[in-house]
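Teaching assistant's notes for section 4

Start the section by putting this record on the projector. Ask students to predict, before seeing the second block, whether PfkB family carbohydrate kinase will look compact or extended. Collect guesses on the board.
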Amino acid sequence: MIDLVTVGWLTVDDIVLEDGTCRRSMPGGGALYSAIGAAIWTASVGVHAPAGRPHAERSRAEIASWGLDTAGIATAEGNGLELWMLHESDVHKQQIRKLSSSEPLAMDAARGPLPEAYGKASGFHVAPQGPESSIANAQRLHAPGRTVTMDILADEMIDAGRYADLSYLACLDAFLPSEAEIDRIWAPARIEDWLAETARSGSSHVVGKIGSKGSLLAEAGTGRMTHVPALAVDVADTTGAGDAYCGGFLAGLAAGRPLVECSAMGTVSASFVVEAYGALATKRPDAEERDARYERALSRAATI
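Reveal the predicted structure now:
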């Protein structure tokens, strides 16, 4: 049985880091990175995403070899999403579609229906994709006894303005945008105030991912704020760190863990991803190493 599922895009990335280092043809995408983040905590994670026809066979084989279920990886016509990932800082990154890439929004239709085997999963993460598709998936997946979380994309390749009306939060258990996305779409004077007010007015927890500073958690209904710092590790590549955080967070929330513990789990997942160049180079830690990082992350959490 599949416990957790990530729904989004797969990409093939040429990653340009701040120091000018370039890594070519790296399997990526929010659906993959968040699935890896979840799989650090639970063994049964599925990926529901499309891969371009030239990359589909390789994608399924390599993702399966890492230990993820690939029944939900569809084959899309065309090359799929081929991107330049440009790192300007740990917070500010640009995804630029290559000339050979398929249209991003076409990938949402190519994903196809959710596999029957995934229907009984206890938790779903709606990873970055087109806004209409994100919101439709949140609405479709929302059901009693099921945990649904969502992250968004605010790059030029999509119309991020569609996210401005937050009525879709009624379908979510947690909403996890990045600081850069919050700034681009809602432009608050203080991110802490926006997080607290948004969480206070609804039933969804709201988490702001703030790069190397960690994350800010706002509890649904109360707006109570907690800061969980990022873990100090040897950073190779921050691509996908926020997505991995979402996967770890989902694993905790679907298991009924307290909000701060979910964030500590997400922080641990992100810490392993940033130590590797590329999603599939992320190591699967043993429980002892993972749990030691979890205790370290949890011990540094503070109410603000």
